[in-house]
Structures are given as C-alpha cells and as structure tokens.
Design goal:
It is built from 10 helices and 21 strands. By secondary structure, the protein is an alpha/beta fold. It has a 4-stranded mixed sheet with strand order 1-5-6-7, sandwiched between helices. A 4-stranded mixed sheet has the order 4-3-2-21. A 3-stranded mixed sheet has the order 10-11-12. Strand 2, helix 1 and strand 3 form a beta-alpha-beta unit.
Length: about 350
C-alpha cells in the first residue's frame, strides 16, 4: 500500500482504548516454540477470549493459511465462540502479538487512519519480517491512509520502531511509556533517539502533548520494559499502576519508583493524576524462568474488560479494582497461567480498531 504524506497541519490523535471500538484484531496462535510443552491449550484460551469479544464487537482473526483457518474455526465452534461478527484474513505471521506488530490506529480529524511503525522483533528476534507487514495488510484491507513515522539519523531517514505495548494513552494528549524500553541500550529500538526526539514524534503522529516517563518494567518481561504490564490509563486522569508489596521481590523497587513518578506527574493540562494501586500476583515460574504475570495486561473492549488471572489470591482483588474503575463494563476473568508462558497476555495479543466518529 502506498503511504500517505503527513498533512501540512495534521490532526492525528490516538484514541484511548476505552473509546468505542469498531473491531479487535488478533492473530491465531501457530508458533509452538512460543509455548514449548504447553501449546495444545493455547488455541482454547484464544477461543475463550474470542467468545467474549465477538459478543461485544467485530473480531478480525489473522491466520497463516487455509489449513490454519480450518483448525481455528473447528476450535472456535467446539468452544461456542464461532460467530457472525468474526472475519478471517490469511496473512502469514511470525508470532501473535498484534499489539506490538499491528497498526496503531489514529483519528485524522473525523476520519480513521493507521500509523505504520517499523517492527523489528523487540530488537531481539530475527524472525519478524511477516509481522512487520501486518500494518500494510490491515491498511490495504480497510482502505485507510497510512502514515509511516520516521526520524533523521546521521543524515538518513529511518522508519521509527515502536510497539503498541510500549505506550499507553488517555486519548487527550497524555502518554505513559518507560525509559527502560525506549531509551536503554539493551534491546535498543532506535539508536540515537532521545526523549525529546520521541516526544516530537509522538506529538506529530499520535497527538501526544505530554509524555510521562516511567522507569523500569517488571522482572521476566521479554520486551524489556513494556508499560502495558505496569501502568495503564483507565480514565482521562486516572491510572492503574502495579505495586509489589513484597520488599524481597525484584519488582518492589522499580514499581514503587514508578508509583512515585506518577504521583508527581501531570497531564497535558497540568492537572495531577489519580493513581490507583493494582496488586501483583505471586511470581509465576515455569522451567525455572520467571514469567511477566501482571493484572495490568488487561484489554478494554466495548462493554467488557478482559482481565488476566493466574490462580492467585490477588485475582479477586484485581478484578474488583478493575470493575470499580469501569462501572459500565463487565470485568471478565481470563485464566492466563499457561498463556503467560508465551511471555505475553491479553493486551499483548489484541489491537483495537476505533469506531469512526
């Protein structure tokens, strides 16, 4: 698809996740190496997620080929999740984390567009070329203008790398992100870009006027600091942020520091945020590896919020907190103790398509 030039006076704005959706985009799981030894149950977890989403909005499911579509249809039917609101697309993918590889939708005035950021496998995995093409596929299917954010480095134009899980917005010009993900040397996405560079890019392509920089993400996070595992906007000036009460846990100090930064932060209008604590589950390990289990990796859809749970005493506490901040939506628990072995959860696998105003 040919990429559009940025308008002379752009009005691009990334909507908040709780704004009305036209659809949710996901990719059907197929890479058994992402869940070694546990893959058999993963498609059924996907089916449960789709079952809830399909009642709330359209669901676009990306499959590798005709055989993959047949398998997914069979499982969806067995789980009572196959619905008329589901549409399949046969586009090869490397992995299923559409939050990071898919397009980031924006509003261009009263119309919809997509921003096509470069995806490089979290600056870690070499097999990412199919995933990097997802925004082009989606943009062509929907017939939407496509903007490719770029920056000049060493007198050359480079498409900017960004994953959707590394940012969170309130839809009114304020963003959350982390220094660990965007600025650290490890898994470095955009060498040479600093805070001011990112802030200019976010303002130009996402309508962000104020970036709140948190510090580090959680232990076990394969993405090296995605914000959607730690802090999320749930209202224009309200943030849920993960807190680890156990002082011996590696997450205690960085999450406490993030909480302090949020308490000092303001939105683009200079107003203080309401910061609500969200507990962490007890550490989840598999084969000696700590996994990035967090209740903050929830997904907000039309009328519902899908919340990961892990068979932990804090499951009910987290569900109650999410339900309280979304009184007009139903908080739906999704068991993710096996799912998190893939190093991602519900927010990581979904990408919202905003409704057209």
């Amino acid at each position: 698809m040919s990429r559009s030039k940025l308008p002379k006076h752009p009005k691009l704005r990334m909507p908040a996740e709780w704004e009305p959706h036209e659809a949710t985009w996901i990719a059907w799981p197929h890479n058994e190496n992402d869940w070694p030894g546990k893959f058999a149950c993963i498609p059924h977890i996907y089916a449960e997620i789709v079952r809830h989403l399909a009642r709330a909005e359209k669901v676009h499911i990306i499959v590798n080929d005709a055989a993959s579509e047949r398998r997914s249809r069979k499982i969806l039917k067995e789980c009572g999740a196959l619905a008329a609101s589901i549409r399949f697309h046969r586009w090869p993918t490397d992995r299923v984390w559409t939050r990071d590889s898919g397009p980031i939708f924006v509003r261009n005035g009263n119309k919809l567009a997509i921003t096509n950021w470069r995806f490089n496998g979290w600056a870690k995995y070499p097999n990412h070329k199919n995933d990097d093409l997802l925004p082009d596929h989606v943009g062509e299917f929907l017939g939407l203008p496509e903007f490719a954010p770029a920056a000049i480095r060493r007198e050359k134009i480079h498409q900017v790398v960004l994953e959707g899980g590394s940012i969170d917005v309130n839809g009114r010009g304020t963003m959350l992100t982390t220094e660990e993900c965007l600025l650290a040397k490890q898994q470095q996405r955009n060498p040479g870009l600093g805070k001011e560079d990112y802030e200019q890019i976010f303002e130009k392509y996402l309508g962000v006027k104020q970036v709140i920089w948190l510090g580090r993400g959680i232990d076990g996070d394969d993405t090296h600091g995605h914000v959607d595992d730690i802090s999320r906007f749930v209202g224009p000036r309200t943030v849920l942020t993960a807190i680890e009460a156990d002082r011996r846990d590696k997450n205690h100090v960085p999450l406490k520091e993030n909480f302090k930064r949020l308490r000092r932060a303001t939105d683009k209008d200079g107003k203080r945020l309401e910061v609500i604590e969200l507990p962490m589950p007890s550490p989840v390990y598999h084969q000696g590896q700590r996994l990035p289990a967090s209740y903050a990796n929830f997904y907000i859809a039309n009328g519902i919020v899908l919340v990961p749970i892990f068979g932990d005493p804090n499951d009910g506490v987290a569900l109650d907190i999410v339900a309280q901040v979304f009184p007009t939506r139903t908080a739906v628990p999704i068991y993710c103790r096996d799912f998190i072995w893939g190093l991602g959860a519900i927010h990581c696998m979904t990408q919202q398509q905003p409704a057209i105003e």
